[in-house]
Amino acid sequence: MRLVTWNINSVRLRIGLVRRLLKQAQPDVLCLQETKTPDELFPRKAFETLGYRHMLVHGMKGYNGVAILAREPFVSSGTRAWCARKDCRHAVVELPGGIELHNIYVPAGGDIPDPDENPKFKHKLQFLDELTAWFAAERGGSNPGRPMIAVGDLNVAPLETDVWSHKQLLKVVSHTPVEVERLGKLQRAGGFVDAVRHFVPPEERLYTWWSYRAHDWAASDRGRRLDHIWVTPPLVGALAQARVLRDSRGWDKASDHVPVIVDFSL
């Protein structure tokens, strides 16, 4: 099974890039974040034409939105809401074989890393806290044998090598110590293993996002690894390969995020 996660930054605007990815990578399951479209306008026919007839679409006008698309039917599907908001950030399906897949879009958090001064940052921390509490109570230590995958734009770059400059980004939202701590708690609550770092040593720099503000993103290479694929221990032995499609950042009218791919030998 090949799984891809990608913050597409508007699925309708970039449906041509999605087609390119699907034809090139041929995933079995595609998870998108920031689809930015209400469900009735989601480009279903484009995916059906390419063989992805099974969809969980959870979107809203102009903001957020997640979707899971697959070649094979889901056993079950649903969504979850956090922070007393209906802002379309979490979709869940059960894949064949009893694997529970979570597609999550964590709030970005604004620019000021202070929950007292910045409501967006407060929301981000609350979102992570609620998600952590749920995984701990419903999916964590109570059932360590459950095969689960969690993917998405988690909007936190946890390792020093997940950012272009650890020192310069310590006070920048996405790499602050409080966010890294929260993400670690979430990972432990679900019993998750970082599937990409399973293959790429933590000493090696790795990014999945480059700002639009950079005149030449490749030359400056000021990236961050915000997009993740995690698995629980029952799936670690099935991990076969992980890749970050860095070159797609250079595609015409690209998203500022690039796809992350993990292959499983199931």
* Overall mean pLDDT: 97
Strand coverage percent: 15-25%
The radius of gyration over CA amounts to: 17 Å
List unreliable stretches of 5+ residues. none
Shape assignment: globular
Helix content: 10-25%
Distance between the termini: 7 Å
Order of helices and strands: EHEHEEEEEHEHHEEHEEHEE
Structural class: alpha+beta
Q: Total number of β-strand segments?
A: 14
Largest sheet report = 6 strands, mixed
Number of helices: 7
**What spatial order of strands do you see in the largest sheet?**
3-4-2-1-14-13
Describe the structure.
- By secondary structure, the protein is an alpha+beta fold.
- Helices cover 24% and strands 25% of the residues.
- The chain contains 7 helices and 14 strands.
- The chain has helices at 15-25, 44-49, 119-139, 166-169, 177-190, 217-220, 233-236; strands spanning 2-7, 29-33, 54-58, 66-70, 76-79, 90-95, 99-105, 148-153, 193-194, 209-210, 223-224, 227-231, 239-244, 260-264.
- The strands form 3 sheets. Strands 3-4-2-1-14-13 form a 6-stranded mixed beta sheet.
- Helix 3 links the parallel strand 7 (99-105) and strand 8 (148-153).
- Helix 3 (119-139) runs parallel beside helix 5 (177-190).
- The longest helix is centred in the middle third of the chain and has 21 residues, at 119-139.
- The chain is globular, with a radius of gyration of 17 Å.
- The model has no long low-confidence stretch (mean pLDDT 97).
